[in-house]
């Protein structure tokens, strides 16, 4: 996607509107030319380390990029919701809307050489890593143009060339994998890090602590990111975790608690974490975020939380609204221009869905490909070394 | 074989048996009451060879009435129509079975993810948390290895936990606990500890759930010594197997199937259990024995319609007991038809079908007119795309072709 245009903010007009948002109280922002410094509305809370500064350096192009990316992610997830209800997407579909700031902010702080691995709520992170809408929608609908050729589904999106390692269905299993990626990075000495994302539900998996222990012993550049949306499917965090301070649960590993709905805070934290991990080994980031949808499309999301809570978060902490307010208050774009961007994103999503619908289903022979890597000479065979094929009469 | 002995014991000592009619008394610690018999109903039959068959369906040949008082049982769930029993869905049958056992025995508790306040991800434990409280219906964090282990530990002292895996595939994380502790402790302790635990959950290939959520763990668990495995397929046997599993002194793994939860059937109002080691005769026949279980039963029955039209008479047996196999029923069938087709959802390599083939060949080789055919799922991770997923499992046309081949 091309970078959006910039609106010059060189005129230091007194366009500082008082923001009436209940949560964020913005300090006066310096009216320099392109670098803009913004204070995060919530300070970082640190465990066993020095918290980074609350002042985040950004620029108008970056802010507009954030807006664009997050609007695209939001649109994509809502479109996936409709597709699921139309039965074009089946099975499990876990939507990320509300948490876009984590995906966007993280990408702004790192390169495509750093690795990201996550669980099943992976569509937006895949997009952040450079995936296309067509690949996502085609995969969700099980078509050939999908990122996993239609064989993986919603929970198994991967992108090797930009070091996105998925996409995993079993809760918590991706964290040891992530620490393994960090090990490989340390082994090859290429000064990159791995971000292993997991949720507050997964934070109670034993394998997490095992992997963290080994990573700390071996000084691996692993960053464990807990996307705390406060509910593990239907169970609230206080009912599942004795200590819901996930950033502290690393004990010997330093941790940082971040406002996950503030994309600039996420960016700052990830930058800080990358520097830290390259020098000192694993660090835990807890992103305080929220998901608007239920756990998956088969969960209404309202049996264990009130609608007031959901709409309250949407009003006060929505990540896209925050960036919108920031852009408007800095006079980087007009309301209309932002609305145009959103319309453009909507159109992109609609086009991608139409294109994905045209993509055909995989060939039946695809059932047996990629079970083993090529070179064994056979595609798939059972214990008696016979190639097995299914033929329907 | 504790369950059979239990059954025999119950049949012989009916006057003191714990068979209660279900009543809606909400007290948890209700003492064992003298049982009451619904007028006109039989609930236990002694077979001609002496083993007790506690399967009610269609076997009302003998009525065993003991010195009980025939009272009018609470018919809270009786339907208003003239037909006996009440209609419900499979997950409701499981819930009924679980609730009745929890009413009956205060040692029964349920552990699992989202089983309590959420009501269970497939609604099997709906309403139980409200009725029995947080100490008997326990919401666990996402830590399968630990809570399965904790359930086994609790069982060692005499509690009877029912562990729910939200999807059977998640129990792979608890494999060590199930194999080493659950299966072996009775043996390694020289009989001191019994593990009356029930591990249950949905498995099998659903509708495009992806590779990791479409696993069939029967094949992995089957060689663990010390455990019993059963697979339910209808509301009737779901409730019966659930109750039998809870009452069993052995660890039982109850395999449910994701796609079968909404099956509707009319089941009896009175208390009944299904024998854990018994297979179910679904359709008697003459030409070929088709052995199946769980969801594939329905594919087989669909194929059976086509086969009957083509002039074949298949005998369909739902083996239900995956470990140990009911070689008595199966053997009798093989002796009658001399041809065997196994239709399963397990993987081809090392699945239940593979073991069953070996067992039948070893024991009944002389009675076979043709090699045993086994139709199983392909040895591939279950793909997400719908068309590919269909080809992964056995479909009715393949069953028809296989029978035709077998009966040539």
Automatic annotation (TrEMBL), chain A:
<dbReference type="GO" id="GO:0004739">
    <property type="term" value="F:pyruvate dehydrogenase (acetyl-transferring) activity"/>
</dbReference>
<keyword id="KW-0670">Pyruvate</keyword>
<comment type="function">
    <text>The pyruvate dehydrogenase complex catalyzes the overall conversion of pyruvate to acetyl-CoA and CO(2). It contains multiple copies of three enzymatic components: pyruvate dehydrogenase (E1), dihydrolipoamide acetyltransferase (E2) and lipoamide dehydrogenase (E3).</text>
</comment>
<protein>
    <recommendedName>
        <fullName>Pyruvate dehydrogenase E1 component subunit alpha</fullName>
        <ecNumber>1.2.4.1</ecNumber>
    </recommendedName>
</protein>
<dbReference type="InterPro" id="IPR029061">
    <property type="entry name" value="THDP-binding"/>
</dbReference>
<comment type="subunit">
    <text>Tetramer of 2 alpha and 2 beta subunits.</text>
</comment>
<dbReference type="InterPro" id="IPR017597">
    <property type="entry name" value="Pyrv_DH_E1_asu_subgrp-y"/>
</dbReference>
<dbReference type="InterPro" id="IPR001017">
    <property type="entry name" value="DH_E1"/>
</dbReference>
<dbReference type="GO" id="GO:0006086">
    <property type="term" value="P:pyruvate decarboxylation to acetyl-CoA"/>
</dbReference>
<dbReference type="InterPro" id="IPR050642">
    <property type="entry name" value="PDH_E1_Alpha_Subunit"/>
</dbReference>
<feature type="region of interest" description="Disordered">
    <location>
        <begin position="296"/>
        <end position="315"/>
    </location>
</feature>
<feature type="domain" description="Dehydrogenase E1 component">
    <location>
        <begin position="69"/>
        <end position="364"/>
    </location>
</feature>
<keyword id="KW-0560">Oxidoreductase</keyword>
<keyword id="KW-0786">Thiamine pyrophosphate</keyword>
<feature type="compositionally biased region" description="Basic and acidic residues">
    <location>
        <begin position="305"/>
        <end position="315"/>
    </location>
</feature>
<dbReference type="Pfam" id="PF00676">
    <property type="entry name" value="E1_dh"/>
</dbReference>
From TrEMBL, chain B:
<keyword id="KW-0150">Chloroplast</keyword>
<protein>
    <recommendedName>
        <fullName>pyruvate dehydrogenase (acetyl-transferring)</fullName>
        <ecNumber>1.2.4.1</ecNumber>
    </recommendedName>
</protein>
<keyword id="KW-0786">Thiamine pyrophosphate</keyword>
<keyword id="KW-0670">Pyruvate</keyword>
<dbReference type="GO" id="GO:0046872">
    <property type="term" value="F:metal ion binding"/>
</dbReference>
<keyword id="KW-0560">Oxidoreductase</keyword>
<keyword id="KW-0809">Transit peptide</keyword>
<dbReference type="InterPro" id="IPR009014">
    <property type="entry name" value="Transketo_C/PFOR_II"/>
</dbReference>
<keyword id="KW-0479">Metal-binding</keyword>
<comment type="function">
    <text>The pyruvate dehydrogenase complex catalyzes the overall conversion of pyruvate to acetyl-CoA and CO(2). It contains multiple copies of three enzymatic components: pyruvate dehydrogenase (E1), dihydrolipoamide acetyltransferase (E2) and lipoamide dehydrogenase (E3).</text>
</comment>
<dbReference type="Pfam" id="PF02779">
    <property type="entry name" value="Transket_pyr"/>
</dbReference>
<dbReference type="GO" id="GO:0004739">
    <property type="term" value="F:pyruvate dehydrogenase (acetyl-transferring) activity"/>
</dbReference>
<dbReference type="GO" id="GO:0009507">
    <property type="term" value="C:chloroplast"/>
</dbReference>
<dbReference type="Pfam" id="PF02780">
    <property type="entry name" value="Transketolase_C"/>
</dbReference>
<dbReference type="InterPro" id="IPR005475">
    <property type="entry name" value="Transketolase-like_Pyr-bd"/>
</dbReference>
<feature type="domain" description="Transketolase-like pyrimidine-binding">
    <location>
        <begin position="88"/>
        <end position="263"/>
    </location>
</feature>
<keyword id="KW-0934">Plastid</keyword>
<keyword id="KW-0630">Potassium</keyword>
<dbReference type="InterPro" id="IPR029061">
    <property type="entry name" value="THDP-binding"/>
</dbReference>
<comment type="subunit">
    <text>Tetramer of 2 alpha and 2 beta subunits.</text>
</comment>
<dbReference type="InterPro" id="IPR033248">
    <property type="entry name" value="Transketolase_C"/>
</dbReference>
